[in-house]
Amino acid sequence: MKLDPPLKSGLPGAGMDTTMVNGMRLLLSSATLLTLFIDPESAGKLSKITWLIFSAYTMHSLLLYVLAVLGLSLPQDILLYWLDVAWYALIVFSTSSHNTLFFLFFFFAILTSSFQRGFEEGARVTLASAGLFAATALFGETDAELSRLLLRTTFLLALGYMIAYWGGSAITQRSHLALLRDVSQLSNPRFGVDQTITSVLEKTRSYFNGRSCLLIMQDKGTRVWSLRSVLQTATGVVHTNSLLSDDAASPLLAFPHDKIALYNQPAGPWLPWIGGARMLEPDSGRWLRHDDAAGARLAELLEAHAFISAPLPLRNGKGRIFIVSATSMSKTDALFLSHIGAQAFPVIENINLLDRLASQAASREREKIARDLHDTAVQPYIGLRHGLAALRNEATPGNPLLPELEKLIIMSGQVIADLRSYARTFKNGQVQSEPELLVALRRQATQIREFYGIDIALQIEGDLHINDRLAAEVFQIVNEGMSNIRKHTSARHGAVKLTCVQGALHISIDNECAAAHVPDFLPDSLAERAAALGGTARVTHSMLGNTSVQIEIPI
């Protein structure tokens, strides 16, 4: 079972949780010390060492609370609740009596560890608390009532285990909800289907800490399977995409198309029932043993110690998603993988449908524009060429304007040929030799230089792996940034730089600044556009007096 990492001080709500936990620790220690002052006989015979231990623990709690309130750095939470266990063992030892109830302090450490670190850490703290309680009680009380001690130790173990289990479940549910939210946010039509699927696979692989994540899909009416994979290597994450025939894809289809599957390598020939292949029966909710040989063959093909697989709820096809791991996986992991598929892939299908509708609408719009271009631009030029030809025919052979008329006729013919070629290319949706985004940005920079005398250099590093929708959004951002240079500064030079690095598009819009001091500001519109794409925007100032708007958009 994969759990969330513990809360950190930089996360929303983490500071409030830390302050609350330290406040409760201070409340418990202070109340206990006050109780000893009011009724010292409740703790049995008290010595100076006992008073020293209780007072020191109260000061320890007060110091932690003050540090938390002031927002200063604290030791790691794992160290704090193990320190609590040590303090409580000292308290039980110093007040050892068959009537003492100070063993209940151990539940505070069990609660904090379970709800911050999950089941495994909570179980370790429970075992340590029970062992220390039993040892200190036996060592400090020569005439200890063993039956009472056994009952309290059993009570501590049983209730501590339940707290650890529920704390781990709460953390697991939070992590599940966080991942489902992430894959839903990744399903953004602006990023396109391919990019969205790759992002979902990488998020899923990272969550399960798997070696790879595979996706195999087939559309209705086709006999070709699409195989996508995200593989973690020593040099980084590698994405692949390939097409398979039915025969090539058959090893990945060893399980029924509608069943959730789990495979763990058997522990050994002497324990054959531990491991093997399991399938979830939807009607009964039971995990039934499947063909272990088929599961072993698939594990060997994937070079996996374990894997989980779930069907995808596709309306226009079928497919499966796999997580390949070097460690054992659980039934809970397999169930959650099916939830991820049910959450993300119907949305991805809708994005694919929207892309197809948009492409068809764009194709029809191109045909309409091409016809309008022919009627409103090509035909007038043809008429102009005919008029020039008629004028040339009426001129006498010695007319000095004949050479000029011939040039005009040739030029008009070239313009007509260019317009027809452009209309034909536009109608068929042919791709230009360079990206349309780059062409549009260069055209915009040229217009700003010609009309306003502002020279804006355009630089693109590497390949921009973005689709048309995101390119349109990027054009609007850069265009607005160049317009801001014209409208809000006196700069005569600027620069725009676009770079794709580590799964993000970086946009830098720079301009020179003559002012000695530039107040901090952030263009609201650019920041809103970047936020709508899941990105961020900020403004920096260089030592040379230049101002730079830095925008980062995840792709």
Automatic annotation (TrEMBL):
<keyword id="KW-0597">Phosphoprotein</keyword>
<keyword id="KW-0547">Nucleotide-binding</keyword>
<feature type="domain" description="Signal transduction histidine kinase subgroup 3 dimerisation and phosphoacceptor">
    <location>
        <begin position="365"/>
        <end position="428"/>
    </location>
</feature>
<keyword id="KW-0812">Transmembrane</keyword>
<protein>
    <recommendedName>
        <fullName>histidine kinase</fullName>
        <ecNumber>2.7.13.3</ecNumber>
    </recommendedName>
</protein>
<keyword id="KW-0067">ATP-binding</keyword>
<keyword id="KW-0902">Two-component regulatory system</keyword>
<dbReference type="Pfam" id="PF07730">
    <property type="entry name" value="HisKA_3"/>
</dbReference>
<dbReference type="InterPro" id="IPR050482">
    <property type="entry name" value="Sensor_HK_TwoCompSys"/>
</dbReference>
<keyword id="KW-0472">Membrane</keyword>
<keyword id="KW-0808">Transferase</keyword>
<feature type="transmembrane region" description="Helical">
    <location>
        <begin position="86"/>
        <end position="111"/>
    </location>
</feature>
<feature type="transmembrane region" description="Helical">
    <location>
        <begin position="20"/>
        <end position="38"/>
    </location>
</feature>
<feature type="transmembrane region" description="Helical">
    <location>
        <begin position="50"/>
        <end position="74"/>
    </location>
</feature>
<feature type="transmembrane region" description="Helical">
    <location>
        <begin position="146"/>
        <end position="166"/>
    </location>
</feature>
<keyword id="KW-0418">Kinase</keyword>
<dbReference type="GO" id="GO:0016301">
    <property type="term" value="F:kinase activity"/>
</dbReference>
<dbReference type="InterPro" id="IPR036890">
    <property type="entry name" value="HATPase_C_sf"/>
</dbReference>
<dbReference type="InterPro" id="IPR011712">
    <property type="entry name" value="Sig_transdc_His_kin_sub3_dim/P"/>
</dbReference>
<keyword id="KW-1133">Transmembrane helix</keyword>
